[in-house]
Structure formats: structure tokens, C-alpha cells
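Deviation from plan, reported transparently: pyridoxal-5'-phosphate complex.
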Amino acid sequence: MNYHQAVYDVPSVFESCDRPKKPKAFDNTVGGLIPENLVRHGLDIPDLPERDVVKHFVNLSQMNFGVDNGLYPLGSCTMKYNPKVCDEIVSWKTVSDLHPLQDPSTIQGALRLMHELEQMLCEIGGVDSVTLQPAAGAHGEYTGIQLVRAYHEANGESRKEIVLPDTSHGTNPASAAMVGYDVLELPSKEGCVDVEAVKSAVSKDTAAFMLTNPNTLGLFEKDVCEIAGIIHDAGALLYYDGANLNAIMGKTSPGKMDFDIVHFNLHKTFATPHGGGGPGAGPVGVKKRLEEFLPVPRIVLKDGKYQLDNDRPKSIGKVRAFFGNYAVLVRAYAYIRLHGGNGLVSVSENAVLNSNYLKTLLKDTFELPYGDLRKHEFVMSGRPLKAKGLKTMDFAKRLLDYGFHAPTVYFPLVVDEAIMIEPTETESKETLDLFADACKKIVAEDPEVLRTAPHNTARSRLNEAKAARDMIFSWRGYEKKMQADAEKARPC
Amino acid sequence: MLQYLKLKSVEELFSDIPASVRTDGLRLPDGLTELELRRELEAMMAVNRTVSQQPTFLGAGVYHHFIPAAVKTIVMRSEFITSYTPYQPEISQGMLQALFEYQSFMTELTGMDAVNCSMYDASTALGEAVLMSYRLSGGKKFLISRAISPEKKLVAQTYARGADIQLTEVGYDPMTGSVDLEDLESKMDPDVSGFYFESPNFFGLIEPGAAEIRNILGAKTMVVGVNPMVLALVKPPADYGADIVVGDAQVFGSSMSLGGPMIGLFGCKMEHVRKMPGRLIGLTVDSDNRRSYCMTLQTREQNIRRGKATSNICSNEALLAVASAAYLSLVGKSGLKDIAAKNIEHAYLLASRIGSLKGFKAPHFKGTHFNEFVVTSEIDPNRIHEELLSNGIHGGFPLGKDFPELKNSVLYATTEMHTKGDHDRLVNALEAVR
Ligand SMILES: Cc1ncc(COP(=O)(O)O)c(C=O)c1O
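Because the crystal trials were delayed, the predicted structure below was used instead.
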């Protein structure tokens, strides 16, 4: 227990001392260019010296925890260490100072990189074509389900339903619903898809089946071939959520497993730092028969020149303006080139090795449902904690005190008090040993210490219910609330 | 570790994958060292022509603005850039407060009550607004101004189609470029849930009829698209009763990077907040009663509500929200007003110089514009484009393909990044096209 996060009371920038750089009155009409009836009066943004602003944000950053600080075993999110060279490349002017509407002749390098990235993703995913347009994994799902709909409509069919297992990520049913589908959620059996349940669920109304493989429990869906057969026999499509691709590169591929549509989470598998929530990128790969539906434009190589093809009458159109999250695409390209084919295979091998090693260290401390072998992540149940009146959340909060980010908790829903751990390939054996030791120590600690954890972070446990009740989303909202409270408190 | 697991080879860990779907490695090039990678990418990228190598007059939703060095210092802090969604608020207060401050800046600029901590970009923010408008007022039709970017229109169509919502276009006044109020009025019917227009619109014009639009819409949803930089000088959408505001905050401290990542701005009135997509940061206290921040109203989101969520969004563009907050803190209100004013002045100056050239009309529309304006000429826009390119200048965005009624028109943008020399080069090159 040697971790102590910085603790500051950093005032909001809005309550910092305002030092207007320009005391003289500013002409809001800009010399009459803006008519008086459109002019804005009053803008409550502080003027601060650069020195103070940098201090403000550096102090804030010290109250934040990233992969560079330590182990971040947030299951399903693949929080691996990312090579710094990738960040540097995207800051080059030849990458950052390009406008998306430039004439293709002036962005040949950028188009080449994207074209080559598409081809590399085709190889990794076992698919025939890739679009780079979607901005994140969920956006890739959305794109994929739009493709499903376009495919069936082109066949004169209006199928109504997307089927998926109860272990699926929340974005899966949400994406399906946004494309107008009903969602049918199947209960899993022993942590995997129940083939019999699929058989009885699938009908003429099934548009697609969505699956993550390995699934969110870290189990490889061994019946995937049989499932694919059932789905395809019913005339439906098979969708692959690629969030867990880090487990299988070079060992199998979604295409090989007969999936028709696949999204890649570039920020997970191919190393873009997650940026406190984003940006990411969610390219989508498809088999030949779906290619004509992909978003426009397609990047094509013609007579040695990269060009944009917008003449695609069956395309679903666009899911995002321009090309997608280009800077993330560049990072992923750089990451793949750094590792090469064999390097990526090692990535998956080490991710799976680390996960199984850590699982073995911890399986007697918690409960490990559903057999033994795992892929890149594993889910345990924190149920044993209940005997001491504790919850998984208490354990998670206490881990923070040891300088480890908490695992994903309470997901997937099929495991009671779920603890979902994904160590990734970039952590050393020493780190995994330390983490396991910390876990064991914590479960032996005085329950009160856990219940009141965390103790060594910038803040103690938060009152999240109050945030939902007060609904203060901005400094202005805060001031309003303060004013209202003061008025209430005033004696009449 | 293999020993500990009593395994002979790592292959045994993949024994659960059926042989029929096994693949044998990847047919990709061998790995590179960091130095080799840099060399190769430097060469590949060197063939791009950056906007500093060739003065570029493109805008249309993505803008080249100056970025103070300190923005990079701040967003590149390891603790920010290598963290993820702040699921554990106690150890993530830095990111949470930075995002709350982003929300606060956007609230201040737009006047809306709640701004989420980012959507993917303006186009997807618009798509989500179309869906939210349906959730708010239930009609299966949505009206959308014709004077918006073709990229955004295509994305809005995709999102609308997914929800079986019918999009109908509302025209613009051919003289002023502003919303054609008569057309809007004629298209209102009980099935319409709302209307989207922009200020500034695709032609760079500030909408003068917002109050009338509010009147025509009655209780229906008013969705306004903004370039948030304009709001330093121009009335915020809350003043004329907007229900939802969307836009892109890339203008605040993020590079163009070929249009991605961008950062979708999304704000709404308090009464609509539970129907809103995306993550919201709220203020609260910890168990020691210290001011603290956490994600809130998560019951709207996919991680809790699954198929019934207000949106599927999970990863967003948080780091760009930090960049926006850092940028706005650094420039302050004085700096922001100066920059916005310089953008307007540059655009008016350039428009009048181009307009005084023989055979050119600029600005094409009568109205107040920000840093973009439409130029019309008798000369084929493609010829102008090619001539400019051969002179090392990148002209504006030709409108003819998406707006046949403007087939000889081009949308030019200019920002504080252009020098007088850049303007001179453009004007001289245009004059030379014959
Ligand atoms: C299994 C799974 N599917 C989909 C997603 C959504 O990806 P993103 O956050 O990139 O939208 C995630 C990540 O959060 C995930 O873990």
C-alpha cells in the first residue's frame, strides 16, 4: 500500500481571479459588421494568465489515473500501454494540418495510409472490405446494423429482429434499437450461447445475430460454427463485436468463423490512448456480398493515384462526416507496422497468457464460474465478500488505495457481483503478482476499511445520488443552485 | 508463467478454438523499429500538402485556427491521455473536473442548461438530435434546412432512416441565404417533431429570423447548429428559445487532422435532459463533504438501459473536450472575442477584395457572415480550382454538386491563420484566371 494520489482543492476556472487583459471596452459589433439585433452582450468567461491555467490543469491531471500511472485492468476496455511514437506521429504537421475537403491530389499520403490500413484490417479480421468511417466501437455497431438493414431491404425483406446473448455489451442492443430493430436477448448457458436457444429463437424475422467472441466472460464461444450455420440457414447475418479481438489475432478471425460484419475497436486492440473516454475509432469490415452497402466515399487506387469513389448507389450513405477519426487511424497504422504480423500474434498470446496467469493466482480468492480456460480477460464473482457484509464495489474502491485502477464491475450481468479483469499483454509478471497480492490482502482486511474506501485517492467515496438529484452540470448551474439555496435559507 | 500454469506452450491456451476455424498467423509485413517506422511514415506523409504549405481557403465545418502551445502541454499529460471513461470517480477527479469545465464553457457560450461531455462530431450530434426530437414530441417527420453541409445532411439521413423518420428540406431565401420562413410555415404539420437550422449556416450566414422561426415552431423542437466560436460575439441560441444546440468544438484547440477526431457539441434545456444522449458530468460531494465530480444520470445510457437507452454512445471525444476547456481558459473572453472579431474582419476584407475583381461577385448572399462566404463568378469553378492548385493555393469548396442552383459558386473560408500575404496570393491568382 504505497500509493497516495495528489489531493488538491482546485477551484473551478470560473471562480479563479478574473484579470481582463483588455480593460478598454470591446466593440461587440466589430465596427458595425454585426447588426445590433444579433450582437451578444455579456460573456462570463474568465481572463487568466497562461501560468495559472497550466497550473490548474496540471494539478487536475495529478488527480487522475491513467495506464501510464499503473495497472488499469478494466475488463472489456483493453487498457494496454501505448507506444509514445504513435502520439508523436499524429502531431506532425503533415498529419494534423490537413483539411478533409482538400483535393485528393494533395492528400495522397493520407489516402494511401488509410487504404493500406483497410487492407491490413481485412487480413486481421478475415474480411474482404473495410470502412474506416465509424468513430468508435458503438458507432461501428451502428454502421454494421445499418448494413444489415440495407442488405435485407435490397433482398426485398423487412426482418424485424436482432438476436443477441445476455452477455453482450450494452452498446449492442442499443445500436440495434437505433436502427429500428426489436432486440431479443437470449439467456446464456454455462456462460456461452445456448445453441438450442438460438435454434428456437431464430425465425424469418431474424435480421442478424450479434456476438462477441471471446465473449465478455473471456470464454471462447466454442459452438460458433454451429451458431453461424443456424443463423445463415435462416437467411440472417452474423455480426461480430470486435472489442475482444486482442485475444485472437492470428489464431482465428471473425471472417474465418463465418461472421459477415465485424467492427474493430482500434483504440483497444491497436493502441490509441483512451483520452479519458475517447477519441477511438470503430472501422467495420464485411464479406464481399455486403461491400456495395458500405458508407461513401470509398478510397480506391486507380492508375497509381488514390481517389474517392462516391458513386455507390446501394451505399447506406454516411455515418459520420468526412473520413472518420483520422488521427486514431494513423496511430493504429503505426502500431500495426511497429509490431508486424508476428508481433500482433505475440500480442494476443501474451494477453491470453497474462489473463490466465492472473486468473489462476486469484481464482481461490474469489469465485470463478464456468470452467477454467480464459482468453484475454476473466470474470469472477465477488460473492464471497457478502459473508463479511461487503460488495464487489467495496473491493474495487479499496484497490484504488493500492495504486491499481479497479476492474470493470457489475458487468456482465450474468455473474453476481461481477469482477471483470483484463490485464493486457503489456503488464509484467511482477505487476500481476503485486496485483494478486493486493487482492488477497484486501479480502483479509477489516471490512470497515473496505466499506469506507478509498482512502488514498483525491476524494473519498462520492455521493453519486446527490449528483443525480441536484443536476448541476455547469458552473452556471452551480451558481444558480447556490442562489436558490441562499434564498430558501433567508428568514422571511 | 507457463510453468506456473503447467503448460508446455502458449498454444495450449488456444485449445478451445475449434480446429476448423484456426488460422495460422497473419500475412502482414514484419515489424519495424521506432526509427524505421518514423522514416517510412515521414516519407509517406511528405507527399501531403499541408494548409501551411499551400494557403487553403476551406472551412465547411472544419477550421484551421491557432492553437496555443499550452493546450498541447495540457492534453498530453499522461494522466489525462492514458485514462478512460471515469468509472471510478474518486481516482479520476482531474478528468471529471476538466470535463465539467468543458460543459461549463459550452453552457456559457450557448446559454443551454445542460451540455454533455461530447458526441463524435457535429454530424452525429445532429443525427442524435433528430432522434431526440422524435423522443420529445413524437412526430415521424423532421424538417431540416437546405443550407447545411452536405456531409451533415447525409449523416442525418442515415440516422433518420434508422428510426423511420422522414426528413423534409426547408429552403433558403435566394437573396439572403437565410431560412425561407414561408416555406417553413407551409411544411409544418402535426407529424413534424422539430426543425434544424444553422447559424452560421453552410454559407457562413448568421440567421436573422430565429425569433420568427421560434414562433412558427410553437411547441415543436428547435434544433440549432452553431459554430461555437461565433457565440463570442453573436446572441446565443438559448436567447431565441432553442431546445437543442449542436455543433463542433474542434475550433477550440484541436487540429483539423483531416477531419477527425472532431468533437460533437450537444446541449439542451433542463426540461429535456433525461432524453438527452451522451455522458454528463455532475457536481456532488464526497463522504468528507468536499466538492467532487462524477458521471450522472447514467440511467439514460446503454451500460444501464441497454436497448432502451437514449443512445448507443460509449467512447466519445473526451480528450478534445479537455482541449476545448484548456483553450478557452487560455484565451479567456478577451482573447476569444479578439479571435472571433479577427475572423469576421478577415472574411469581410477578403470578400470585398474578391468582389471587386472583374467577373466575381462576393459575398453572393446579402446577410451577416462569419468567417465564410460564397463567391460566384462566370468562370467555371473547376477551372479556378485547378489554376489555384497549380499556383500552390487551395481554393474554397465548390457548391455546384450539392446545390445545383449555385453551380458557379464556391464557399471560401478564412481565419486568423491567414496573413495579408495569403490573401494577396489568392486575390492575385483569381485575377489571373481568365
Ligand atoms: C464488448 C464491447 N462492445 C462494444 C464496446 C463499445 O465500444 P466503444 O466504447 O468504442 O464505442 C465496448 C467498449 O466499451 C465493449 O467492451
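Chain B has a mean pLDDT of 97. We consider this an acceptable substitute for the interim report.
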